[in-house]
Amino acid sequence: MAQRKCPLCKRGIKEIDFRNTAQMTHFLTPWAKIKRSHDSGACSKHQRRLTHAIKQARFMALLAYTTR
């Protein structure tokens, strides 16, 4: 099987901004859970940065912790 390339590496994104919620919603499930790197296709470096940014955005009330 061919290995997928990280979507963030493809676009050349080095830093993930927690204020860019539109970008981060692609890495969340419909229940607002963070997708696994296997499902999202992100490399381990970007997955860690993405997780940190999502948690920071949730703390600042930019993203929801859960959905109803």
Automatic annotation (TrEMBL):
Could you tell me the Gene Ontology terms of the biological process aspect for this record? Answer: translation
**What does the UniProt keyword field contain?**
Ribonucleoprotein, Ribosomal protein
Record GO terms (molecular function): small ribosomal subunit rRNA binding; structural constituent of ribosome
Origin: domain of life = Bacteria
Q: Which InterPro entries match?
A: Ribosomal_bS18, Ribosomal_bS18_sf
Q: Does this entry carry the keyword rRNA processing? A: no
- Where is it found, in Gene Ontology cellular component terms? cytosolic small ribosomal subunit
Q: Which family does it belong to?
A: Belongs to the bacterial ribosomal protein bS18 family.
Name of this protein: 30S ribosomal protein S18
The organism that produces this protein has a lineage beginning with: Bacteria, Candidatus Berkelbacteria
Q: Which gene encodes it?
A: rpsR
